[in-house]
């Protein structure tokens, strides 16, 4: 009886293990063929998941601009505003040909007109922020190419030589650079933990 019981237990365990392996093989085959469909998310669910991971979603119909295009548009708007202010101050002084009391206030707007280019002169002092996303598995060569394209570095080979000891320690995520950074500052930003 004991031999028969051991035989039946072995047969039952074998059938269960075989059916589990068969199900696993079928699932693996479905995955390799791509027939297993992932769970479809609604737009709201996808938006919430993206925000939770720190990303933003945009519709393809919404216009997107690069940083260079945005900077050019801002510079053009600033020039237009300065030209309009200069034209307005020129019209104000040209329309009033009268007394010397008016000419002394007109000398007052002239310093304010010269004061408006002063913020434009301080604008280059404000550091421009540039971002580069470092993906998992990116090589130092690829990162250096991206940094050169952004204008963060000028000499790709010199940067690769300086950053070579740290190439395997770069962290995945968005690295943000302000102004003309030194190689040490760039490497420190690439090594910074972006998940905090």
Describe the structure.
- The chain has 196 residues and is mainly alpha-helical.
- Among the domains are: 67-124; 127-191, Dna Ligase, domain 1 (2-Layer Sandwich), CATH 3.30.1490.480.
- The chain has nine helices and two strands.
- The protein has helices at residues 2-33, 43-52, 67-95, 100-107, 109-115, 117-122, 140-150, 156-163, 183-191; strands spanning 129-134, 173-178.
- Strands 1-2 form a two-stranded antiparallel sheet.
- The chain is elongated and about 115 Å long.
Shape: elongated
Strand order of the largest sheet: 1-2
**Which segments are poorly predicted (pLDDT under 50) over 5 or more consecutive residues?**
96-124
Distance between the termini: 65 Å
Residue-averaged pLDDT: 77
CATH superfamily of the domain at 127-191, please? Endolytic murein transglycosylase
CATH class of the domain at 127-191 reads Alpha Beta
Percentage of residues assigned to helices = 55-70%
Structural class computed from helices and strand pairing? mainly alpha
- Under the CATH scheme, which architecture of the domain at 127-191 would be assigned? 2-Layer Sandwich
Topology:
Layout: H1 2-33, H2 43-52, H3 67-95, H4 100-107, H5 109-115, H6 117-122, E1 129-134, H7 140-150, H8 156-163, E2 173-178, H9 183-191
Antiparallel strand pairs: 1-2
Helix pairs in contact: 7-8
